[in-house]
Amino acid sequence: MATAVQLDAGYDNIGIPLVVRGAITLAVLQALAVVIVSVITKALGGTVEHALTGGVVFIGAMVTIFYPGTLTRPRTIDGIAGAAGIGLAATWIFLLIDAFLLQTFHVYTNRWHQIGGGSIWWYLPVWWMVGTYLSWMGGWILAHQANKSGSASVPAAVVLVSVTSAICGVVAILTHFPGASWNVPTFAVAMLPGLALANIVGALGTRRS
C-alpha cells in the first residue's frame, strides 16, 4: 500500500481494468489475512494469540480501507465510488476464494462455526456490506485530505482512523455497551463507527466547490 497519493497529475481513476485488478489484489490479501489469523488461532493461545490476531486484523482492515483509494485517487464522488466499487468487487472475489479454497481446506475454526449456528455462510452477506463500507469510507477520508492540501497521506489517515476507532471502543466499554470488552472483536467492530467519526473529522476545513 502506497504511503502517499499525489493527486496533482490525475485523480478519480475509475477504469474497469483498474477496478478489476484492484479487487482481485484486495481479495487475495484479505484471504491471506484470514489464513494467517486461522493459523495463529489454532497454534497459539492467550495474550500472544490476541496480540498477533489484533495486529493482523488491524493491517487487514487498513488495507481494505485505504488500498482502493490509493488506486482511484479520489477527489470527487466518482473516485470515492470507484474505491467503494473495488471494495464491493473484492468481497465477491473473496467469496469464490472462500468457497473453493478456504472452506475446502477447513481454514475456519469451530469457533467460527458456532457463531453461525453450525454454518459459515452467514458472514458472506455481512462481508459484502462491511467490505464495501470500509473502502467507501477510506475513499472519503483520502478525498477530504486531497481537497484540503492537494495530496492524500495514507499514514495520516491510518492514524486518524486508529484514534477515532480507539475512542469508540473505549466509550463502548466504559458505557457497558452489550458485548463490549477489552478484546480484539470489540475494537474491530469499533472501526465501523470510528470510520464515520474519522470521516467527519477529516471533512472539517474542506474547501467547498
Throw out a few tags for this protein.
2 strands, 209 residues, two-stranded antiparallel sheet
- Helix percentage range: over 70%
Tell me the radius of gyration: 17 Å
Strand order of the largest sheet: 1-2
* First and last CA, distance: 30 Å
Low-pLDDT stretches are 1-8
The profile of the biggest β sheet is: 2 strands, antiparallel
Task: Give a brief description.
The protein has 209 residues and is mostly helical. It is built from eight helices and two strands; from the N terminus they run E-H-H-H-H-H-E-H-H-H. The protein is globular, with a radius of gyration of 17 Å.
Could you walk me through the main structural features you see in this protein, from its secondary elements to its overall organization?
The protein is mostly helical. It has a domain at 12-150. The protein has eight helices and two strands. It has helices spanning 16-43, 46-72, 77-102, 110-115, 123-149, 154-174, 184-189, 191-203; strands at residues 4-6, 151-153. The protein has a two-stranded antiparallel ribbon with strand order 1-2. The chain is globular, with a radius of gyration of 17 Å. It starts with a strand and ends in a 6-residue tail after the last helix.
